[in-house]
Automatic annotation (TrEMBL), chains A, B, C, D, E, F:
It comes from Nitratireductor kimnyeongensis. This is HpcH/HpaI aldolase/citrate lyase family protein. Keywords: Lyase, Metal-binding. InterPro entries: Aldolase/citrate-lyase_domain, HpcH-HpaI_aldolase, Pyrv/PenolPyrv_kinase-like_dom, Pyrv_kinase-like_dom_sf. Gene3D superfamilies: Phosphoenolpyruvate-binding domains.
C-alpha cells in the first residue's frame, strides 16, 4: 500500500527523520518502528548520493521513503522521485509561485513539467511498464509544501488550490520565529497554535494532507485533533540522545558506592 | 582532437550514458567502444563528486567527457567545465531566457559570464597557460540545449540565435509526452518525427550541432538522415540488461534436459 | 528459501559476479536475472564497505548474497556473514589446514570458532531471536573452498572431510595455469577437464556442493553433467562488453552510407 | 574568539583555500599555519558532503571554517551555516537583488529568512541553548559578497547597504577579465588596482569587512594598505606545487654527476 | 588526561560503541555522554577509512578513541594507533602466541615491533617531537586482549605476563557460547560469572586493566565489584532502539481514541 | 617504458608518497614532478578502495603506480597488482619466510602462486591478451622487500636469493630505531649509514634494485653514491608544510608595519 493510499485512507503515519548522509545509518533508522523515513537535505546532511543510496535501505525495510529538499531546489524534487521517493517536502513555500514551481517539478504533464526518467524508482518498485508508470505516478507521489512563515500562511488558500500540491507540512520552529517576528524559537509556542490549527483545517477542507514536524512527542495528540495525520519525529541525534542516557543511567545506578 | 572539432568536421559521434555515480563504473563505461561518455545528473545518479572523479576515468580512456546537469542548475554547467567536461547538456531549455542563462554559465566574457577557475580542467588537459585557456575555451566547449517540449520547439529559432548555444539535444521520451499532451511516453512516437526532423534541420541551418538521445539503436540511421550527428545510447542498466541475458541464455541452453 | 536449501534440493543456481565496489552498481547487477550475486574481494575491487552496503541492494532484489574473500583473509569470512552473506568463497584453499581455518571462521562453536555478532545479518534477515540464530546459522551459511591448484587437488579428500566446509568452487583459469605449470591461462583447457570432473564427483560423493566459475557460458552444460550446480558468470565488465557492442552495432548498421 | 570578532577587532586573517573534496585532506590543510580555511564549492570540488565532514577537521584544528558556495546557490549558504561555517562567500553578487537573496539565506528573521535547524553547527560549537543561538547567530556569521564584475562595482554602494551583507571579497582573476572586457586574465592587472582600492575603501567606509583572494603572496602588503584584512591564498595544488619542487630540487642537486 | 592515565588512576570509564562505518555518525556518538568511543571492525562495519575519519570526530568531542580490530588483523592494530587510537582491542586472543603477536604490533621496540609512522596520530594529538613520541607512546596506548573462549581462559596467566599486553576485555556473548559448548548465547549466563570474576581478579592482580562489553546496563555494578573498570555499551542500533520507541510511545499515547 | 625497465636501465627514479586515501588528492600528487607515486597502506591512510581509484589518477598523469601494503598483508600485494600497480613494497620483511610469502603473492606460477584475475590492471594498461599478460607480468612488476630491522639485515642474503624478490627498500626511521635498540628515531642516524650502504651493495651485487625512503632530500646524493636508485620523498603533509609557509611568509613579509 503506497503512502498516498495510506493517507488517503485517513491513517496516521509516523515518519522517522534522518540527518546523517549515510546509507547504512538510514538502513538502521528504517528498521525502527516508524512507517516512513524522511531524508533531510535542508537542515540535515543528506545530499544527492545519500538520498539515492538511502532510499534502498528504506525500501529494504518496507518503509515509505520521503525526502525534504533544500529551499528552492525544485530540480531535486524531480530527482528524489526518480530515485524512488514517495513524497517530497519543499521548505519555505511562501507564495503561490513557489507552489507552482514545486508542483511543476513533481508532476508529469499535463499537470506539471516533470521530465521522464525514473531510472531508479521503477526497478526499485518492481515495475517495468513505462506507460503505466506515466499514468499512475502523479497520483502515487505526494508533494508537501512547507508552511512556516506569515507569508506562507497568507498565501495558503492559493497554495492549496494549486493542482499538484498534495498537502502541507508545518515547520513549528520556523513558524514560531516568524510568529514572534524573530524573537523566539519555540516549537510549542502557544500563541501560534490557533494558526497551526487553521492550517490543518484549511488543508483538510481542500481535500489535502496535513503533516507536521513534532519536537515534543507529547504534542502529537493535540496536532492529531487539529487534523494532522502525518507526524515527523527525530532525527538520529534525538533517538540516540533519548536512548543512550537511559542506558548510561541504568549502568551508573547499578554501581554501589 | 576535441569533441567540438570532431563535430565541426561532420563526424558522427556515439556517446555512452552513465547513471551510476561511481568513478570506477564510469571508468568501465569509458572502456566501451563509444567516442564520448555522458554523466547524467538529471535522471541518473551523478552528482558533483562523481562527476569530478568520473571525468578522470573518461580521460584515462581518451574519450570525450560530457555532463547533463539537472534542470536549471546552471551553476553546475560552469562547474562541469571546471572539472574537465568538453560538453554540457542542459535539460528543459524551454525559452530564450533559459538559453541565455545556460550560455552565460558556459562561456567566458564577453560572450557569457563564466567565472575563472579551471582548477581541474587545465591540469587534466595538460595545459598550463591561463591566457591561452581564456582565449580558446569558449570555442572548445559545447553547450547543448535540450529541446523536449512544445514551448521549446516554439522558441527554437530564438534559442538557436543565442550566442554561446552550440547545439541542441533532443530528448524523445519527454518530447513524446509533450507531443501527446501527457498521454504517452514513446521515444519512437511516429507523430512527432516530423517535428524532430525540423529541429535537426533548423539546428544545422543555424550552423550548430544536432544531437539526440536514442532508446532504440535501430533508429539511429533515421535520425542521422535528419541531420543528427551525436547519438547518446544507454546507460549501464541498458548495457547489462542487453548483455547478461545473452550470457545466461547461452548458459541455460547448453544444459541438456 | 535459502541458498543452502536451494542447493540441497539439487537446483541449479546461477550467480552474477560483481567486481565494482559500489552499492548502486551492485543493486543494478542484482536486478539481472541471476539467482545469486557474488561480491568479489579477491580480483574484484570489493572491500569491507562495499560488501556491507552491497548486500543491502542484493537483498532488496531478493537474491542470494555471496562474497569471495581475498586469499587467507578468514577474518573477512566471518565479517561477510555478519554483514548478511549466505555463502563465502575462499580462494586458494590448498591444504587441509587452510580448509580448517576457513571452516573455523565460518561456523559457530562447537563446529568452528566464529565469534558472535550478526549486527547486520540478523536485522537484514528479519530475525531477532539470537538463540535461534545460533542454532540455525551454521546450516544456513555455505563455505565454498576454491580448488584451483595441484596441491588443492591432492588435498581434496581431506578438505572435503572437514566439518564446516560445505562445498568447493573451481577456478578454471588458475587451475589451467597450475595444470600447465604456469605456461597457459585457458579456462577451457581440455587437458584439465578430467581433473575438474573428478573434483565435482568427489564433492558430490561427499554430500557437498560443487560450484564453478564459468568464462564461456556455453560450457555450463558440460559442467552441469559433471555434477556442478552453482555457476558463476560475469562480472559487470563482461555484461557491458557483451551488451554495449550489440547496441552500437545495431546503431551503426542502421546508418546508410 | 570568533572570526567575526577577530575581523571586528581589525586583525589581519589569512585563510587557506581547499579545492579537494575530502575531509582528510581538509584536516591536513587545517593543520597549516593559516587562521581560517575556505572550502571552495564554486571552482573547487567541494560539495555538500565534503563541506559537512570537512568542517569537522577544521574545527579539530581550531581554525575558522569558511565556505564559498556556487553561483546563485543561496540554499547552500544556509546549509553551510547549519554545518558549522562561520562565514560564507557568495560569488558573482552582481546586483542588489543578488545581495538581498544572499543576505536572506544567511540571517535569521527579522533580518533575513534563514530557516531554523543548526543540526551540526550547534553541537560542533559546544552550545545547546537554541534561544541564545537565535539571538547571536546573525552577528557571529559573516556574509561575504564577491565583487568581480563591472556590474558588481556599479552596484557596490547598494550592495553594501543591504542589511545582512557583512563584507565583500574581491576575486581578482574574474575582475581582470571583466576589466579587460574578456581579453585578459591577470590577477595582478595594474589597470584595475584603483578600482580594487575603491572597493576596499567603500567597504571599510560602510563599516564592513574587505577581503580578497590573492594569487601572488607578494601583493598582500599592497592590498593590506588598501584596507583589506582577510586574505585567501591557495589551494592544495598551490601548496604542493610550491613545496614538492623545492624538495625535489634539493634531492637532485645533492647527486653529484 | 589520557585514557591510560584515567584507568591507571582507577577511574571507571564508559565507552560508547560504534558499528556504523561513517564519520558523521561517529561524531554523533562521540557527542553522547560516554568517556570513550570504540569503533568496531570485527562485528561492526568499521574499516580502515571509517576508522581514520571517525577518530577525528571523536577527538573533536574530546573523547578517547578506541578500535576493535578483526580477528588476527594485527597489521590493523598498528594502523589504528597511527590513526590516533588510544587503545586497541584484539578479539579472540586465545593463546600466548596471539598475545605476543598483538603486543608486537602495539609497542615500539624494544618491547615490540611496531613500525614508525604516526602520520595522523601525532598531528591530531598536537605533538610534533618524534623522539618524545617514541619514548612515551608505549605507555600511553593500551592493548586490550579479548578473553572469550575456554582456551583463552586457560592461557590467561601467560597472556597477562606478556609485556605489552595492558589489559583484557571480556566478550560475554562469545564466552557464554564457549562456556555452554556452543549451546547458548547469553551474555548474562549465570554459570560463567565465576569465571568472569576470575578473569577480572587475575588481571587486576597482574597490575593490568579489566574491561568488559556489557549488554544489560544493569549488570555494570556487578562487574564493577568484580574489578572491571572499563565498560563498553552499545552500539548505535541499541541507542536508537532504546530512544525511538520511547518517543513513539509518547506520541501514540498522546492521541485520544 | 615500465618502471621495471627504467630501473633495469639504471635510471634514478623519484617517487612521490601519498598518505591521503582520496583519488582526487592522488591525482594532484601525480601531477607533481615525480616519476612514480607510492600509495601508502602501512602508515598512510590508503586502503583497498583508495588504491583502486588512486591508480587511475596516477596513470592519467602517466606516472608509475606503486603501493606499500600493511605488514604481512600479502593478499593485498596480489590485489594491488590486479588494480594496476607496477611495484609493491612490503614492510617488515624480516626473514626469508616473509620474503617467500611476499614473492608467492607477487608472481604467477611457476615462480609464485599469484592467482589469475588482472580485472583492472589489464584494461588500464591497454592490453587484452591474457596469455601475453601471463608471460610478461612477472618481469614487469617489482617486489620491493623492506629492510628495516636487525633481523632483516641478518637475513638479507637469503632474502635477496629468493626468486621473485626484485629489490629492497630501506626504511631509515625504523632502521634507526632498530639500530639504537629502541632508543632513537633518526632517519639520518650516522651510526647506521655503513649498514645501509651494505644493504645497497649486496642488493646491487645480487642484480636487484636498491630503493630508500628519504626524509631529508639533501641525503639523496649520499644514498645515490651507495647504489640506491629509487628514492621516495613525501607525503602530502610534507609538500604542503614546505610550500604553504613559504607562501605565508611572502605574504606576511609584504605587509609594512
Amino acid at each position: 500500500m503506497s503512502l498516498a493510499a495510506l493517507l488517503e485512507a485517513g491513517e496516521s503515519v509516523f515518519s522517522a527523520w534522518s540527518s546523517i548522509p549515510d546509507s547504512q545509518t538510514v538502513e538502521l533508522v528504517a528498521g525502527l518502528d516508524f512507517g516512513a523515513v524522511t531524508l533531510d537535505m535542508q537542515h540535515g546532511g543528506h545530499h544527492e548520493d545519500s538520498v539515492l543510496r538511502g532510499i534502498g535501505g528504506i525500501r529494504l525495510n518496507r518503509k515509505h521513503p520521503m525526502v525534504r529538499i533544500p529551499v528552492g531546489r525544485f530540480d531535486m524534487a524531480s530527482r528524489a522521485l526518480d530515485m524512488g521517493a514517495e513524497a517530497v517536502i519543499a521548505p519555505m513555500v511562501n507564495s503561490v509561485q513557489d507552489a507552482r514551481a514545486f508542483a511543476a517539478a513533481m508532476k508529469y504533464p499535463p499537470t506539471g513539467l516533470r521530465s521522464w526518467g525514473p531510472s531508479f524508482a521503477m526497478p526499485r518498485s518492481g515495475k517495468s511498464d513505462g506507460q503505466a508508470w506515466l499514468e499512475t505516478a502523479n497520483a502515487e507521489t505526494i508533494a508537501f509544501a512547507m508552511i512556516e512563515t506569515r507569508q506562507a500562511l497568507s498565501a495558503l488558500d492559493d497554495v492549496l488550490a494549486v493542482d499538484g500540491i498534495d498537502g502541507v507540512l508545518v515547520g513549528p520552529s520556523d513558524f514560531s520565529i516568524a510568529w514572534s517576528n524573530g524573537r523566539t524559537v519555540d516549537p510549542a509556542l502557544e500563541d501560534m497554535m490557533p494558526a497551526i490549527e487553521t492550517i490543518a483545517q484549511k488543508t483538510r477542507a481542500a481535500g489535502k494532507h496535513a503533516a507536521i514536524y513534532v519536537v515534543d512527542p507529547g504534542l502529537v495528540g493535540r496536532f492529531h485533533e487539529m487534523g494532522f495525520r502525518l507526524f515527523a519525529l527525530g532525527a538520529e541525534a534525538a533517538y540516540m540522545q533519548e536512548g543512550a542516557p537511559a542506558m548510561l543511567k541504568a549502568a551508573r545506578d547499578s554501581i554501589k558506592f
